[in-house]
């Protein structure tokens, strides 16, 4: 006598290609903003601060659209806790701190440092963790 066990999906349908591209697209933009902040911190060339501002704007757009997709995935999930909720909350915190970072970068170039660099480090770490969790296979426990 054998028993068959199947994994129950956490989502009714996995995140689509667009959601994956939006989430994965936010990672290099936040990383580019961090690298631009490091370059600005080392050289004090104001253009690096401008680069970081534009990269943050793009990252916020990608992360915001991915956040909408995560919200839809959370609403559609049969179980509202666990990985979908963790992913949504991490992406929400990342987006909010990224917005605060964008506001910090909207200041005069000399007023950006050091808070802009610290926020860029935090947001980059958060988006890496969020992408790691968000792009993992979504399967529940074995029944």
UniProtKB/TrEMBL annotation:
Residues 18-136 form the DUF2231 domain. The keyword rRNA-binding does not apply. The keyword Transmembrane helix applies. Keywords: Membrane, Transmembrane, Transmembrane helix. The chain crosses the membrane at residues 21-40, 52-75, 87-104, 110-135. InterPro entries: DUF2231_TM, UCP029509. This is DUF2231 domain-containing protein. The lineage of its organism: Bacteria, Pseudomonadati, Pseudomonadota, Betaproteobacteria, Burkholderiales.
